[in-house]
């Protein structure tokens, strides 16, 4: 029996009514990927206000590795709400804040003394990580990479790569941020092998310490082990090792931005664990909170202790409700066999879409790690010219047939899959079947105009 149950066209009349209210009341600058209004959700199923049941493969942009409304998370929030809604860690201490920091200190990579600072969102955590690195090193320069996304604050926009969607009209941006090419295997330059491309990017990273910034001015190198918004690009392990080597040689801080790739998304608690590289600081958010807003910077105790007292803080950071939700989410992620679900998701995604590459020439690449997978669409497989309209039309077609998706990619030409890790395999296959049919439908409609 199918999981998708559509009682009205998508969007239904009640969704359209709420959409009109949103258009009148909410800034037009706030995007919305799917034209539905959600009433409730559990696991991987979403019910909209018209009574339609859809399968969620967007996962709140990677927030729901443990699914919608997991029972233990909901119960922990309810129990905590009876005792303490807010205190502020700057005002007084409370057990959930300390317990979550202890858990993150224990679970993040590295057998050295660690400490943690909690905040409310990913961009805030990135800013805190940069502050820690600058204070610890006494330097200002930050190295980041093409395709990176680190947030929407002024500093994190400076660190983010994509101009048109995130940065246009918002400058000037924070200084002392330097950007370098990232070895995206799918877009290896003509005439190079993938290995040569990675080697060149490693050389360029070293060369940047002469061409862009002196080692004495470099505070940190910030890298997403799997590039998120930029298109779900697994960073080659050799490149991650080169970053570690340069940080060791220069005294700079290596920061792993695990906001989207962490908290179990790739089949390990932290994506960088696949490489064996140990960063100095790890940034967590999204699925860390099991649906609640929380983020963290965790790493070497001497770095976290380097600012003066009062130099960091957050009114809502480490809110008691978010802390207990995160503790339960981490508990679920560590339960026997739970992270193994990510491997099954990757296998099923590849089994579904790899064969379609020969059928639909617009499908250029199927990539990712675990439950962090993406499809990239191009107008031509040789030139690899991005085809963003194809991705967006496919998302619309899938939505109309009961599957919730979002786009990704530096060129907005990718579809990303961020399902709950424990999505039933038959439910996943049903949802991916809808996406596959949407790709075929879009191809038939658009191929002639390519």
Which key terms come to mind for this protein?
38% helix; alpha/beta; 450 residues; Aspartate Aminotransferase, domain 1
Task: Provide a descriptive summary of the structure in words.
50% of the residues are buried. Strands 4-12-11-10-7-5-6 form a 7-stranded mixed sheet, with helices on both faces. It has a 4-stranded mixed sheet with strand order 1-2-3-15. 38% of the residues lie in helices and 17% in strands. The protein is an alpha/beta fold and 450 residues long. The two termini are 38 Å apart. It is globular and about 60 Å long. The mean pLDDT is 97. A hairpin with a 5-residue loop joins strand 16 and strand 17. The longest helix is centred in the C-terminal third of the chain and has 22 residues. It folds into 2 domains: 262 residues, Aspartate Aminotransferase, domain 2 (3-Layer(aba) Sandwich); 68 residues, Aspartate Aminotransferase, domain 1 (Alpha-Beta Complex).
**Biggest sheet character:** 7 strands, mixed
Could you tell me the number of beta strands? 17
Task: List the total number of helices.
Answer: 15
- Main-sheet strand order equals 4-12-11-10-7-5-6
CATH topology descriptor of the largest domain: Aspartate Aminotransferase, domain 2
Shape: globular
In the CATH scheme, the class of the largest domain would be Alpha Beta
Structure class: alpha/beta
Low-confidence stretches: none
- Number of separate domains: 2
CATH-assigned homologous superfamily of the largest domain? Type I PLP-dependent aspartate aminotransferase-like (Major domain)
CATH architecture title of the largest domain: 3-Layer(aba) Sandwich
Tell me the Rg in angstroms.
Answer: 22 Å
Keywords: Aminotransferase, Pyridoxal phosphate, Transferase
Family: Belongs to the class-III pyridoxal-phosphate-dependent aminotransferase family.
Organism: Allomeiothermus silvanus (strain ATCC 700542 / DSM 9946 / NBRC 106475 / NCIMB 13440 / VI-R2) (Thermus silvanus)
Protein name: Aminotransferase class-III
